């Protein structure tokens, strides 16, 4: 109990399924990468809860009140709703779990170190998901509560929906299972409602319709190359914009979901067969589908740099697309085994794209297969 505990969780890249995966039960293929957020939980020095992150230049002290965490120093109030919002949500959610389970709440200092920012700018590798999962793991270790993979994911998801029920949680799944995954999201609005009505413990153990996680093999027939535009983009803002367009629920939206599902399941099948042409075709089709979504909604998924990133990858013999919500951040290219990686990187550098030297996250030494596919899928 209360031992220092260090845990890390990887960032991720979406291969296909962006925006569709926001709908409960709809799939995306997401890949954990070998860059991590590390969180260490230790006894605090001054306050009941202390949060230390490389995003801020000083530790922030918090106290536990009847309505959750509050800053000790009013000048830090903005941080609690900003850079610290995900960390604080984890502490709050675990606090509620402890209270509901009859366990005491434990003083803690969480210290974060992240490899998912470059010179202070987020790269778009799912830092919020990685920090949430790493914090759940570290806090679980500190409290002496052993959490299996799916429990980590569920707790991280509950913390995450208290911040924003919009995101799909694909980043949380990649951070939890540290693998290439076919991920289908649960209904986050329903989870938030249940959490408010019944608490953390009950919601953790309830069925989560829509959620499904399948591990997929990393391909050998193609290599995966992320490129960074150098422009940070806000995923939350783009999800909010999409909600306001009224597109959701339209015939067009339904067609988009079906088309995306076809592409995503085609990619999952191609990964299982390790088939280069089908993998490249899935990326090509996904880029076109995102382009169509962009034209219909005006979301601004594509940018001149992302267009250049995709063109350069095609010239190098591969296929590419924006990865994630778009508007900046990263794109992803797949190259067949006989294409030149140097050629791709040269073209990218000329176009102002930074090739990111990332690899698929190596599997953890012990990994429990997710229980979700067998027990809790709706399809
Ligand atoms: N190093 C970190 N320390 C604490 N919180 C972090 C850290 N990195 C990311 N976060 C949390 O994640 C949020 C960024 O999430 P988001 O904009 O979705 O970026 P990303 O695309 O990398 O997930 C931050 O505002 C913060 O709440
Ligand atoms: C639009 C999306 O389907 C994909 C967004 O992927 P990003 O990689 O942009 O997300 P971050 O994890 O915040 O970096 C939204 C979602 O799935 O939550």
Automatic annotation (TrEMBL):
One of its GO terms (molecular function) is phosphomevalonate kinase activity. Pathway: Isoprenoid biosynthesis; isopentenyl diphosphate biosynthesis via mevalonate pathway; isopentenyl diphosphate from (R)-mevalonate: step 1/3. Coiled coil: none annotated. It is an enzyme of class 2 (transferase). Residues 287-352 form the GHMP kinase C-terminal domain. Gene3D superfamilies: 3.30.230.10, GHMP kinase, C-terminal domain (3.30.70.890). Residues 90-177 form the GHMP kinase N-terminal domain. Pfam families: GHMP_kinases_C (PF08544), GHMP_kinases_N (PF00288). Keywords: ATP-binding, Cytoplasm, Kinase, Lipid biosynthesis, Lipid metabolism, Magnesium, Nucleotide-binding, Transferase. Residues 356-379 are annotated as: Disordered. Its EC number is 2.7.4.2. Residues 368-379 have a biased composition (Basic residues). This is Phosphomevalonate kinase. It comes from Streptomyces racemochromogenes.
